[in-house]
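Lab channel / #folding
Pinned by the channel admin:
"Please post every new chain as: sequence first, then the structure tokens as a reply. Keep commentary short and put observations after the output so the thread stays searchable."

First post following the new format, from NK:
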Amino acid sequence: MTIEPVTELGSGGAWRLPHARVVPMSAPPASYTAAVERYLTGAGIAKSSARIYRISLTTWGWMLTGEPAPTGPARRGAKPPVFPVAAIDDPALPEVLAELAAARADEMDADTVNRELSIARKAIGWWQRQGWIECDPTIGIERRPAPPDRTKALAENQIAALWRLDVALREKTQWKMLYESAARADEVLCLNVEDLYPQDKRGKITAKGGAIEWIHWQSGTAQLLPRLIARRTRGPLFLTDRKAPAGTPTLDVCPETGRARLSYRRAEEIFEENTRLLANPLASPDDIEDLDGWTLHRLRHSALTHDAEDGTSTPMLLARSRHASVRSLERYARPGVDSVARHVAARDPAARRRT
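Reply from TO:
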């Protein structure tokens, strides 16, 4: 970084403050997409988080070119725009970006919008420190208020109905593991066969920040895993149904089958599609295309809530969730709908008289 000398302006004695100019630490990448990859590797983003960061930054890529980001099925397979990272410094961009972000916020939930904005600002800050760009076009975009959703923990009968769905072995195993381990979906999807210790019902995952940690599962997952793995000894645990396309990173390709690692986005889509009628029990199957299903995160949320209802201690809940603080755990350690219903029913005066 260089600092220009202080210069006196006019006869009024006003002084121009020193202006810091950031000298690029390295040559700017050729495109925005390349800048995203440089950020993900250079900023030390954990592999389990890199997928979510890449999806969010790809979404911002469209908006940074003044185009609305595709949503729903149109998003899969859509080619992100190609433009130089220096285009982010366009002085007209902040106003256009604010309008696009506001329109997107009207269509998406507040948590998703806020998470994507946070990721974009982290990347932009890192690019600024590299000297590749000077401005932050998101500076005028505000976070959306996100009232807490007290219904995220699934009821026990909803979990039971989920296990009764007629789905593929891959989905059965993945959903069971997510619920029984209370792990994050991206952590589980990054598991490799060689990370598993089936005899101990546990596996090694790369958590937020890059730490290597354990997740533990129960008999439901343990019974399904051998069928899913078959004779494989290495490579991604959860695979797509087809061969990996050219250019897929080697770490995301099974060396024994040639199939690719199942992506978070596709896993989320499959779960959402299969749970639409469970999430909307009064709806007609004819309306399924217009319904919204559950998110994979609700399995983690439900597992931790059910643990808390069963009297699991705070230290154990922290260990299960792998949160650093009790405050982060508060959203999960709340009695769910079944627990509250039992509490109310047990104190029903009419019920006590019948007893």
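NK: The two ends are 79 Å apart (CA to CA).
TO: also worth noting, The longest helix spans residues 110-130.
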